[in-house]
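2 proteins. here.
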Amino acid sequence: MPQRSSIDSVERTVYAEIRSWGEDSLFRQRLRLALESHLIWETYALSYDQVLPRLDFYQEVVERHSRAFRDAARGSILDLGAGTGNVTIRLLEQGHRVTALDISRAMLDRLLSKVDRQPDGVVSIVRHDAADLVQWTSASFDGVTILLALFDMANPAAALGEAMRVLRPGGMLVVTEPKRTFDLSSLLRYAERCLREQGAYDALQEHWARVSKVNRKIDPSARRERIFIEDIRERLELSGFSITREEDSHHGNCATVWAVRNSARGATVGGR
C-alpha cells in the first residue's frame, strides 16, 4: 500500500550499497533498467493529470474502459496498470469494488489522493508487478481493465497471462494497447496542437515538455519486449476468450479490444 509523499521535483538522488551478486553484468543491467523505469514514471506522475485528461483521444479511451462495466452488476474489477486512477475513479462511481494495481509508487500516490473518502473495502491500491499475481487465485475478478500499460512492462506476455487467469469465466477484459503501426511523432504533434487550440499550451508548457520527453523514452515502437494489440487479440482468442468488439483509438495508433472469457481453460497462453 503506497504511503503519502510529497513529489515536488523531478531531481532524485539514489544511494545503494551492493554487498554481493552473482553475474555482475546481468545485475548491473537489471538495476539500471529498474532505476530508469522508476525515475521515468516518477517524472510522468508530476504532469500526467495536467495534460492527458485534456486530450480527446485520452478522454475517449477512459470513457470506453469505464463504460464497458457501466451496465454490469456491481462486482470486483482489476485495474491493471492503474496509473493515477482515472479509470479506477469512474469504476468506483459506478459502484464497483476496484483493485488498482501499478508498479509505480509515484503514480499510485496520485491515485491515493483521489480516493481519500471512499469507504473501506471499496478500493484496494496495490504496488505490485503485474507479471506475477500469485496472491490472487484464478477467477478472482468479475472484470479486468488494462489501459496502455502492457507496452511498458518488462514481461507483458506474463502480465497478460495473469490478467486472463484472474478473470472469472463470463467476465469482461477490456484492453487498449498500441498497434504495430504506432507512430509516436504524429500523436505528439496532434496532442500539442490540441493544447494550443484550447489556449492551454502556454500555461502547461512545462508539463507538456515533461510529458513529451517521457513518451519519447517509453515509445512502444522502440522497445525490445514488445506486445501490440494484434498479438493480444490472438492470445485472447487462443485462451478461450471471445472478442466482442474492437475499435481504433489514439487516431489509429492504438486499438481497444473487448473480450469475454468463455471458459476456465487456457488463460496461460503467452504467460510465464
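next one coming up
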Amino acid sequence: MLIRAGFDIAFNAPVPTPLLLMLSLHPSRLPDLQTPHALVFDPPVPASDYTDGFGNICTRVVAPPGLLRITNQFTITDSGLPDATAPDARQVPVEDLPSDVLVYLLGSRYCETDRLSDTAWSLFGQTAPGWARVQAILDYTHDRITFGYEFARSTRTAHEAFMERQGVCRDFAHLAVTLCRCMNIPARYCTGYLGDIGVPLDENPMDFSAWFDVYLGGQWYTCDARHNRQRIGRLLMARGRDATDVAISTAFGSAWLAGFEVITYEQTGDVHSAAATA
C-alpha cells in the first residue's frame, strides 16, 4: 500500500535561535520512499543532519528572527500488515540480554522505574513472563489513563500519568515503558506517523503519535498502549529511552510553536501525480 504523509510546522523566534529537529523518517524506512523526502525551510536557512546514538536522523538549524516554516511531504510504501504479535515470545533473562539492550531497562527522564517498581511487581508479578506480561501491562495502561488533547503537558512523567490517570499518547507510552522496565522487559519509546488506516477516522486533529517497542525472544515488537490494538501503517521517525531523546524540536533559546499540521493517509492513484498536487 501507499501512504502519503508530511507536516507543516512553524516557529517564531525573537532572535536567532539554534534548533535541534527530529522531523525526518527513521533510516530504516528510507528505502521505502517513493518520492523525495526533505525538510524545506521558509525562509531558506542552512541545515545539517547527523545520526544520534540511537540511530535517529537529527537536523541542526538556526531559526532567524521572526517566523520559520518547515514543511515536508512524501509518499512511502508500506506492507499494509498490522503490528506483529507473538503470544509465545519468551522474556529473556537479564543476564542473557545483549549489552546494547540493557539501557532500555534503566530509568530515564520520564520513566521513573524507581517510583513504580513496587507497583509494577504487585500488579504483574503473578503474570506469566513474556508476551502475556506485556499484554497485561498494555491492558492496564490503556484502562488506567483517559486520553484527551486537553490533558497534554510536556513535563508529565510516567509516575505523574499513573497518579493523574489522564494524558496523551506519550503518557500512555511512558507509563507502559516504565512498567515493562520494572518487570525486566526492555522497552524503548518510539515516535512517528500513525494515520487512521483500517480504523474509523479519529475526530481529533492529526498529530505525531507515540508508541513503544518491547524486546522479547531476541527481537523487538511494536506495542501501543493508547490504542491497545494492532494498527496498520506506522511510519517510524525516531526511537529512544523516552520523549527526551525523540523530541521533534529542541530550542536552545526562545522559539515558540506558531503553526502545526500533520497529515497521514492511505494514498490511492498515481504516486507522481499525487506528489505534484501536494
